[in-house]
């Protein structure tokens, strides 16, 4: 799990409490909403600190990878409007319906979250194409497949489902709410 | 996001280690987007003292106090293991090794994060500390200033 993609990297190695948090807070102000920040730290307390801080400040703590005494924390900056329910694509299913589909049929699950979010937990066999890359990578998908688009809360997948239907995909469904409340099987990278 | 929470710390102690704890909490809370105020009273005022020797007009007692108290955060003693000055030297060495921020840097960081540093004027009078002896850009107040902030504080500490 060494090559999880992040949009920004903050080197907080060697810094002691409270500096990793203080620096992270400063750094995240310079980042666009929805982007992923990787914080590299050696302070062993930084994992609990960062998780608590992210939850409190509305950002999304994705997970931590530990190797060679370096803790690599992944945080996704909150983006405005994402917390509000704004789902307008009319072909949609809820989590339970998707679970039943997975049990019975051969269906394609398309995960449009950032690759770091995907890496820390996704539905087994889901295809990862972050929403920002979807337009360029549409050709990787098969138009005849039944495609269930999933993200964290149903917003990005809503936009993705619309994009796919504009491109001529007919069997596209938005999964609402998505991974934030997914209690079925999950794989990590 | 919810309204900003407040953290208020009353810094009564004049020890290097206790002051460090206060400033670490304050900086952490500021990173948590809290409005943070540190109320410096009694020996805690010494953390705000400038290092240079100033000689404002003072009475005999005030001069004595001024001589006996440390000038600035870096000269403060430890609450334990002072060992006639060896303790602070040792702990600063250890802190350097572990990359912990020295107290003067923590105070600078606090200012940078817009933490309000407030000096209690009543105890300033008692200890004979004048405004020109304390750091610039700090605020002054009394108990009401603390109560006003403290009554809706999420975290209130006395250190």
TrEMBL record, chain A:
TM stretches of this protein: none
Any matching Pfam family: TusA
Listed Gene3D superfamilies: Rhodanese-like domain, TusA-like domain
One function term, GO molecular function aspect: transferase activity
Protein origin, superkingdom: Bacteria
SUPFAM superfamilies: Rhodanese/Cell cycle control phosphatase, SirA-like
Keywords on record: Transferase
Ranges for domain Rhodanese: 103-188
Entry protein name: Rhodanese-related sulfurtransferase
TrEMBL record, chain B:
Protein name listed in UniProt: Peroxiredoxin family protein
Source species, domain of life: Bacteria
Gene3D superfamilies, alphabetized: DsrEFH-like
Coiled-coil residue windows: none
Family annotation (Pfam families): DrsE_2
Organism: Aquisalibacillus elongatus
């Amino acid at each position: 799990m060494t090559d999880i993609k992040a949009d920004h990297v903050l080197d907080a190695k060697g810094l002691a409490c409270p500096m990793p948090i203080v620096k992270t807070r400063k750094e995240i102000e310079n980042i666009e909403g929805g982007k992923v920040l990787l914080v590299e730290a050696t302070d062993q307390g930084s994992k609990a600190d960062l998780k608590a801080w992210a939850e409190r400040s509305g950002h999304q703590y994705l997970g931590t990878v530990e190797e060679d005494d370096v803790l690599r924390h992944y945080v996704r900056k909150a983006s405005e409007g994402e917390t509000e329910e704004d789902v307008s694509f009319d072909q949609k299913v809820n989590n339970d319906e998707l679970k039943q589909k997975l049990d019975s049929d051969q269906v394609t699950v398309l995960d449009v979250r950032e690759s770091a979010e995907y890496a820390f937990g996704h539905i087994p066999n889901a295809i990862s194409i972050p929403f920002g890359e979807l337009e360029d990578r549409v050709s990787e998908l098969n138009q005849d497949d039944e495609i269930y688009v999933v993200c964290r809360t149903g917003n990005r997948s809503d936009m993705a489902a619309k994009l796919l239907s504009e491109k001529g995909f007919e069997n596209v469904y938005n999964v609402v709410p998505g991974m934030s409340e997914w209690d079925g099987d999950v794989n990590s990278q | 996001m919810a309204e900003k929470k407040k953290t208020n710390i009353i810094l009564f102690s004049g020890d290097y280690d206790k002051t460090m704890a206060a400033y670490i909490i304050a900086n952490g809370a500021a990173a948590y987007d809290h409005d943070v105020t540190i109320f410096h009273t009694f020996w805690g005022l010494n953390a705000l003292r400038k290092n240079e020797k100033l000689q404002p007009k003072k009475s005999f007692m005030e001069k004595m106090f001024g001589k006996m108290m440390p000038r600035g955060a870096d000269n403060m003693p430890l609450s334990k293991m002072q060992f006639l000055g060896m303790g602070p030297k040792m702990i600063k060495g250890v802190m350097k090794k572990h990359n912990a921020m020295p107290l003067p840097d923590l105070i600078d960081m606090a200012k940078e994060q817009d933490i309000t540093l407030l000096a209690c004027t009543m105890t300033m009078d008692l200890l004979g500390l004048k405004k020109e002896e304390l750091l610039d850009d700090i605020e002054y107040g009394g108990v009401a200033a603390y109560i006003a902030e403290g009554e809706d504080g999420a975290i209130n500490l006395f250190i």
